Amino acid sequence: MSDMRASGAGDPVVSLENLKVHFETEEGLLASLFSEADIVRAVDGVSLDIAENDVVTLVGESGCGKTTLGKAAIGVQRPTDGSVTYRGQDIWKAKDGTGAIEFSEIRRALQIIHQDPGGALNPNRTVMKSLTEPLKRWQSDMQSEDRRARVLRMLERVGMTPPDDYAQRYPHQLSGGEKQRVALVRALLMNPDLILADEAVSALDVSLRVETMDLLLELQEQFDTSFLFISHNLSNARYLTEKAGGRIGIMYLGQLVEIGPAEEVLQNSKHPYTKALRWATADLDQADRDGEGLPVRTIDIPDPVNPPSGCRFHTRCPKAREVCTREEPTLSDTNDSDRGHCAACFRDREDHEYWESEPLEENEISPLEEN
Amino acid sequence: MARTQQRTTATDRADADTILEIRDASVTFDMDRGESRVLNDVSLDLQRREILGVVGESGSGKSMLASAMLDAVEQPGQLTGEITYYPDDGDPVDVLDLSSGELNRFRWEEISMVFQGALSSFNPTMTIRGHFEETLEAHDTDMDAGMERAHELLSDLYLDADRVLDSYPHELSGGMSQRALIALSLLLEPNVLVMDEPTAALDLLMQRSILRLLSELQEKYDLTVVFITHDLPLVAGLADRLAVLYAFEIVERGPADGIVHSAAHPYTRSLLKAVPNLDAPLETMRPIDGSAPDPVNIPQGCSYAARCPLATEQCRSEDPWYHDVSDDHDAACFHWERAADEIPLEITEATK
Hints:
Chain A has about 375 residues and is an alpha/beta fold. Helices cover about 30% and strands about 20% of the residues of chain A. In chain A, strand 4 and strand 5 (about 90) form a beta hairpin. In chain B, the strands form two sheets. In chain B, strands 6-7-8-3-9-10-12-11 form an eight-stranded mixed β-sheet, sandwiched between helices. Chain B has a four-stranded antiparallel β-sheet with strand order 2-1-4-5.
């Protein structure tokens, strides 16, 4: 798709500007516990540019909004506020028919691989049928034999050999790793500019993860595709991102709290939440044995319907001070010069009033009060 | 499979500190295409008040081992072997010989079990309090003392006891319901807690926090804990000892430090390299080629031979017996002495 690339030169592939996605909660689950509130701020003000050949991994706990943000980035989730643009074109204006780029073109350019690849494949169709179908739709002038040849080449390329054998199989005749590959082939056949891969390896057995991640990175390079990975696992995020020279973004309660080059974010973490995630990522050195305390004051995540005031992490943050309960740090507040590494934390600003502010009492917040 | 006669290791000799002794435990299923052996002659001694981590990938038989410890293998699975429980005082208990009534008491009051996915363990129409009360009633236990213990256990797990007790299961987050389930499992003061992937569905920060709480509970209540997981790094920091399962057999067992820093079985070493982590150089992380054997056709000889870079003709024809790596560390491998050179581990050796 070099023609597309040329027209969009300089622009990021996808750009999110102060993006917000809010959901109304269903009656019941949360409403019974929190009578008044009914809006979940799944994504609450995130700006992010994804360039060509870029690799970005969003990391955070469940409910932090990373999947919603990912879906908004590829135009399958409509934002409540803010904008998502594809090569400068607002995706939702294109959808409404008022853009310079056709919406169908945007849909082709932004692809997704689901966490559960099996669920995305029709159980009654062979691999060949599942893979030629989208080609028919997007490249209707292609001959049937050419389509089949293209699918076989791609299967071979992702290591499914002999491809003729795999092409005739049904999803239930494939292992989890093989289904994942078929899903990947299906996305790549579209010549996408960006692929969203949501927990693409976390369901795989440990011994398969590295292999699958290597394959993803190899294809990313070969096809000049950008990837937006979503993971709750910092080790997988590191592997994917550091190898590709990409960025890791850490999300907490709907916001991006730290972003930067993988090794920067992991080795020189700025945000106390990133440090807590690092602690949670067990390493083999058993540092845990020295009995240091938990790096969070409470272990449960606050309810996203009523996010804490000020810095949203202050209820769990071991470094929180009084100012954190009333003032909200933003990513742009911080020093942007460290190779694009920034964190939404007052501790990253030498002259902030944080340093004069009173530390919060250890016992000020009972374990579940904010929940 | 002729391994039993040849085994002569520390872990084989049940001593005074053994609380649960597993001998030649096998689980088989009859399938159309033959007998499926999903646990193969596993012998293991659980030491009183230790935390034992059992590590295995999916399909390695680790859940079967957990079920076997409580004679809870579901039909049509057939469990054979011997499971002996040694109470603090009193006679040893032959677990596979208990009546269903005895087994029910045994499973709550001596050995308790927590599975992955607390939500499916709770009745959705009953409050958490209802579950605690029902359990106390079913075991004729004093309600007041029992609920007092429930409060204490829930607080130990960083939960607001009253609020959690008044909640229905779906009103709790995954991490909260999993902790409530751990509290419930300890309600009748069992000595042993067997946990099968108890944190796998949770976020890493919650997983690690629960592990920290577990080690506090273990000390406070003098528990013996078996923690079964696919996640070696997760349990390495918690466990005193580790047992590594591959293809339905324990291939290596020893102190956690010994397994992590000087793993002797080629599979353990390859597994350590295959798990991405935050600190090791990226180029040292390698997948394990090939796949685990089919339980219906377990190959002759060492079941890892087909994937093992050290395998020789002997490995393909003869079952490897346990070789002593140190006093309390052994590996079922003929070539364990060469494993460190053939499969170097930059991470652990560098930081030793």
